[in-house]
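[step 3/7] inverse_fold.run input=structure_tokens len=159
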């Protein structure tokens, strides 16, 4: 486990973290869009509850994407992102069971969603692994340590 003291993982904007964060944000947003696209025309279909779950899951995935973009590095947020995308993936496999391969072949949106979800889960898990424990991140915030953006702006403004 990472205690937050390693110099290679201490900053929020290290190149590896920036790359993983960008991938995670994009995959969460794309997964939300794909699920909304599939669900929107199917809302109101009484025998199928999936569209309603997809709308709720899409809202959660979009919120996670925004929080990942604008928030600090919190392991709990990254776990939520991985769990949300993993729930979409696990739900697909549970719904279709042994016919999952046939369902993928029949639905292009499902192929896009599965690829995006697998990549997104990997990105969120990578961020989780690189982030300091949440207690360290909260302590830094309480101490008033500027984030990387604030630190960079302060350095640029200094003579």
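[step 3/7] decode complete -> sequence:
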């Amino acid at each position: 486990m990472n205690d937050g003291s390693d110099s290679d993982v201490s900053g929020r904007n290290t190149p590896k973290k920036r790359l993983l964060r960008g991938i995670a944000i994009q995959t969460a947003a794309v997964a939300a869009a794909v699920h909304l696209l599939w669900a929107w025309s199917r809302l109101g279909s009484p025998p199928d509850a999936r569209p309603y779950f997809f709308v709720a899951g899409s809202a959660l995935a979009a919120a996670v994407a925004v929080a990942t973009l604008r928030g600090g590095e919190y392991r709990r947020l990254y776990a939520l992102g991985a769990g949300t995308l993993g729930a979409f993936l696990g739900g697909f496999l549970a719904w279709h069971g042994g016919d999952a391969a046939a369902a993928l072949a029949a639905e292009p949106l499902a192929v896009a969603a599965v690829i995006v979800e697998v990549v997104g889960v990997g990105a969120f898990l990578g961020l989780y692994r690189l982030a300091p424990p949440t207690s360290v991140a909260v302590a830094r915030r309480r101490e008033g340590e500027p984030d990387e953006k604030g630190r960079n702006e302060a350095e640029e403004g200094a003579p």
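[step 4/7] annotate
DSSP finds seven helices and no strands in the chain.
Residues 1-9, 150-156 have pLDDT under 50 and may be disordered.
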